[in-house]
Design brief:
heterodimer; A: 602 residues; 5-stranded parallel beta sheet; B: 398 residues; alpha/beta; Rossmann fold; 2 domains; 13 helices; 13 strands; globular; disordered C terminus
């Protein structure tokens, strides 16, 4: 049985364990009394807050139960926020407003006020600033503009098509794509320009890079660029995330450049290096977002993302990386749309992950956490009467926060017909601030909206469906075999087709499209900032110069790299050398000669 | 009955957004259009070469990653340069292509750009109206590849009108020095991947040289591939989408729908194959649709030099092997996916089955998906080094 099969068993076993505890609490009097005692202790320790209106509220809301069996069901089955199995949240307080003034009601009814000496810390800005345009210096300028009023610099980088496919800007037929949809990166020199002026070793800085196919090469360039600017001592201080999710590329997004197995091997080489040398780096973001956007059902999204995660964990463990070393460096990325499953999709995912990691991989508490970034659904947004998209995104944000996501990105309403513009980006970001800061829904009380009968019903249904998907994948021989069999791909494509059909037939109402359509689309005429030809040519000229300058040395470096790849050793240290004198395309090309090219799946 | 409209669809280089094109392809097929799907991340050169070889009426491009003005314009320009301006270009890119962009693209020769919100019906209607009229008389072809493409279309269209073979093609095969290799086997056995890996080895065998004198004498390969379709309906001709090595000027590929004929081949296959076999290629590879147990229909008439049966290790029980006629007829039997658990059993059982035949049949294990697979190297050796003196002699007159 593969690890995924064991995960299924461990979740089933855990659910039986919970039922046993419920039964025991009801039959074993001492156990029941202890539980009740513990429950009362927990409740007694919950501080009370006052809403701005003066209404007192507990900082953590718990179900109103006093029967030992039900207490056991809650504590073992769901867990307090920040406690195994983490159904209610990976951390204790999530979005709660920092404690300013705690009012505790003493037994004699007297109210004592305790002022905390902490200043109101302005929480870290929730917005992740996704950017990437034209050349490295243009994106750099944009990064500086976006962060000009911020104390923390969390930069999220989008790359252009040629970079995502590991192709150099001077390759045939990609001229028009240079700097489009993201930044063009060919060499370590571009990488130096990209983050120029930012203190890469600072705790207030982190870089996120949305790239998977050539991720190890780009990662090596980032490290090399940091070393050029700050010396080798900066390496252990680097913070950030690189997407590097090969499975979802093959299942949904199609940005894969090497065959699956060598792709996974290069990934593992990188993870082995970063988890050892860069303990603050997230070397993979296990992403369901693109699976969801490609049209999967919510259950498919959650099931494939989780099973991909377990497959990576298995790979890293087989390589010999300790689970408590790589486990805390894994993070997840989910889509949030409007289907009912999204009420609890991430909650259930968090629980399954924690159980699987603890029971099957022997992970400690930090390696059990399903750390989640959520993005609202781009697919749910439409061009017709596009201002409705504000409402769609707001509803999705609400769902995302009800799932206690660790961070979130909200889409711009104008996304279906253009690259998001300043005005709509701002509205999208403010949507988050309105929900978290202005409204009282999430800032006073943890568990404000969790645990309703409906939510529980959805949770049970989702968990059963996810485990069914796991069983099917296990039956096909595990994640890798199922991927090669195009299983997930076909399932996603079928679901996507069904979704479109439902819209066409009107059984899936889309307001303004197949229901309440007024016929006059109010799409504003947009003008897009395109990369000027002069800039595209500049990128090519710089690349050609770089190649010429290093012409003598690069061939030797590539041969050496190829040799290490052939030998089966970890090639990441060699990549670090190669990126100093070779371009992205040169490295990709040489690696493809050794391991082959990815054969597209349709 | 008029021939179905043939179009080619693709997603540009550095772009993996295939969700829209997949949906559109299915809609086209449902409405009687034959779609040669080239897949995503395809260069201008790959698209134009495929469109010319397939002799499609139009190319539909779905672009979501920017650079569309240049990309579409380059496709139109290259078609003109190659003498294939009769192949038209249309496409879309949801919200990424603005009305202003579309105006520029139309000026550069693109027929139509569909915007976000266009219904599938509108696109289907457009293709039928714009590209559905029969072609007029075609002028002199600029290159031999175009001429060949036109002739193949004539043959295929001829069969749509009447079931009889055009008489002039029934001769002239004997003179050929082309080696014709047939690939058959059940669906999912990996025929297309295997062929594409063999192509890589053909191409590497005599790599292009910078010397212009010898450059013209490099070997060329033709591939005739088949996908199933019902009379009067569309088809998805998708083999090209998963091929990486066959996107090359030295490879001439044509995809055909079976148009209702059972047996894994099209009514026009015989004549098209005969034409390819005397068109100066060094090798012609023919791939049937994933067939079951019957024989390869064209084997009896001697047009094929060698037949390869590609098996999947998961064929079921040993009894199934007795029913597979091709196991008696194939020159080479390949057990692909030999990394699967069942492969060893499959090898043993097939080996025993072949021994009953007491012919010099060869059995090869391959893992076609693996780069530089030694099994594929061995198969390549068997195919490429077969006795050349026998070429043509074995072929009977048709």
């Amino acid at each position: 049985m593969s690890k995924l099969g064991q995960v299924v068993e461990s979740v089933e076993k855990y659910n039986r364990f919970v039922l046993d505890q419920v039964k025991r609490a009801r039959t074993d009097q001492k156990f029941g009394r202890d539980l009740l005692g513990r429950w009362n202790d927990i409740k007694a320790k919950i501080p009370t807050m006052r809403a701005p209106t003066g209404l007192p509220l507990p900082r953590l809301a718990l179900p109103e139960i006093d029967e030992p069996g039900e207490i056991a069901r809650f504590l073992f089955g769901e867990g307090l926020p920040g406690e195994f199995p983490f159904l209610n949240g990976a951390y204790r307080e999530m979005y709660l407003e920092p404690v300013r003034e705690v009012e505790s009601f003493e037994e004699n009814g007297e109210t004592k006020k305790r002022k905390t000496d902490k200043k109101i810390p302005q929480a870290e800005e929730p917005t992740r600033l996704f950017s990437g345009l034209m050349l490295a210096e243009d994106t750099n300028e944009r990064f500086h503009y976006l962060t000009r009023h911020q104390r923390t610099h969390r930069l999220s980088t989008a790359f252009d098509g040629p970079t995502l496919y590991g192709i150099d800007s001077d390759a045939d037929g990609v001229f028009g794509k240079i700097g489009e949809g993201g930044v063009a990166i060919d060499t370590v020199e571009d990488m130096v320009r990209l983050y120029d002026g930012f203190d890469l070793g600072s705790a207030n800085f982190s870089a996120s890079m949305t790239i998977s196919g050539p991720a190890p090469i780009i990662m090596a360039m980032y490290i090399a660029a940091a070393k050029r600017r700050f010396g080798p001592a900066v390496v252990p201080k680097l913070r950030g995330t690189i997407q590097a999710d090969i499975f979802k590329e093959v299942q949904a997004q199609n940005e894969t450049i090497f065959p699956i197995e060598p792709s996974l091997r290069f990934l593992t080489d990188m993870v082995e290096f970063t988890t050892r040398e860069m303990p603050r780096w997230y070397p993979i973001s296990i992403s369901g977002y693109h699976i969801g956007e490609a049209g999967s059902t919510p259950v498919q999204q959650a099931a494939y993302t989780l099973s991909n995660g377990f497959a990576y964990a298995e790979m890293f463990a087989v390589r010999g990386i300790p689970v408590d070393q790589f486990g805390p460096r894994l993070s997840f990325f989910l889509d949030c749309g409007l289907d009912v499953e999204y009420i609890a999709l991430a909650r259930v995912s968090r629980r399954i992950w924690a159980i699987g990691m603890r029971e099957v991989f022997g992970a400690g508490p930090k390696a059990q956490l399903y750390k989640l970034h959520t993005q609202t659904s781009g697919r749910s947004l439409i061009a017709a009467e596009f201002k409705n998209n504000l409402t769609r995104t707001a509803a999705e944000l609400m769902l995302a926060y009800m799932n206690a996501t660790n961070s979130c990105h909200s889409n711009s309403a104008d996304e279906p017909f253009t690259t998001p513009s300043e005005e709509w980006i701002r509205l999208a970001a403010h949507g988050q601030a309105i929900l978290l800061e202005e409204s009282g829904i999430f800032k006073h009380t943890m568990n404000m909206l969790s645990g309703s009968p409906g939510m529980k019903a959805v949770e049970r249904a989702i968990e059963a469906a996810i485990l069914d998907e796991f069983r099917e994948i296990e039956r096909l021989g595990g994640v890798l075999a199922a991927v090669e069999d195009r299983y997930q791909r076909s399932q996603i494509q079928n679901a996507s087709h069904r979704y479109e059909q439902q819209i066409n037939e009107g059984v899936r109402p889309i307001i303004g499209l197949n229901r309440y359509r007024n016929g006059s689309d109010d799409i504003p005429e947009v003008k897009l900032a395109r990369t000027p030809r002069k800039k595209q040519q500049l990128q090519i000229d710089r690349l050609v110069k770089f190649k010429k300058k290093n012409a003598d040395k690069s061939k030797r470096a590539l041969d050496k790299l190829a040799g290490v790849v052939e030998s089966g050793q970890n090639c990441f240290p060699e990549l670090l050398e190669a990126v100093e004198i070779c371009s992205l395309g040169q490295i990709t090309g040489r690696l493809q000669e050794v391991v082959g090219r990815f054969r597209p799946m349709v | 009955m008029a021939s179905p409209i043939r179009i080619l669809t693709a997603v540009p280089i550095c772009d993996g957004h295939d969700s829209a094109i997949n949906t559109i392809n299915l809609e086209f097929i449902r409405h009687g259009i034959e779609v040669v799907y080239l897949g995503y991340h395809r260069s201008v050169g790959d698209i134009v070469r495929a469109a010319i070889q397939e002799d499609v009426r139009a190319i539909g491009i779905s672009s979501y990653n920017g650079g569309h003005i240049e990309f579409f314009a380059e496709v139109v320009a290259l078609l003109r340069k190659k003498g294939a301006a009769d192949i038209k270009v249309f496409g879309g890119g949801g919200g990424t292509i603005t009305h202003e962009d579309a105006a520029v693209m139309r000026r550069k020769g693109v027929d139509e750009i569909f915007f976000a919100g266009t219904s599938l019906e509108e696109m289907v209607k457009f293709v039928h109206q714009r590209y559905g009229k029969p072609r007029g008389k075609r002028g002199c072809a600029k290159t031999s590849d175009i001429e060949l493409a036109h002739k193949l279309t004539e043959i295929e269209d001829g069969f749509s009108k009447s079931k009889r073979r055009s008489p002039k093609l029934e001769t002239a095969i004997l003179k050929s020095v082309t080696r014709v290799i047939g690939f058959t086997g059940p669906g999912g056995a990996g025929k297309t991947t295997l062929i594409d890996e063999l192509v890589l080895r053909f191409l590497n065998k005599d790599r292009p040289t910078s010397d212009k004198a010898t450059a013209g004498r490099q070997s060329r390969i033709a591939i005739l591939s088949h996908d199933p379709s019902v009379i009067g309906e569309g088809a998805l001709l998708g083999d090209r989408a998963t091929m990486i090595n066959s996107q090359n000027d030295r490879v001439y590929m044509r995809s055909m729908a079976t148009r209702g004929q059972p047996g894994g081949l099209s009514p026009a296959t015989h004549d098209c194959l005969a034409l390819l076999a005397r068109s100066g290629f060094d090798y012609v590879i023919i791939e049937t649709v994933g067939t079951g147990q019957e024989a390869m229909p064209f084997q009896k008439n001697g047009i094929v030099d060698q037949t390869v049966l590609v098996m999947n290790p998961d064929y079921g029980s040993r009894l199934q092997l007795q029913k597979i006629v091709m196991l008696d007829l194939a020159n080479i039997v390949v057990v692909n996916k030999s990394d699967l658990q069942r492969a060893r059993t499959a090898h043993t059982e097939i080996e025993q089955r072949l021994e009953q035949n007491r012919r010099a049949q060869r059995l090869v294990d391959t893992v076609a998906k693996r780069h530089r697979d030694p099994g594929v190297d061995k198969l390549f050796g068997l195919i490429s080094t077969s006795d050349k003196s026998k070429r043509g002699k074995e072929r009977k007159k048709l």
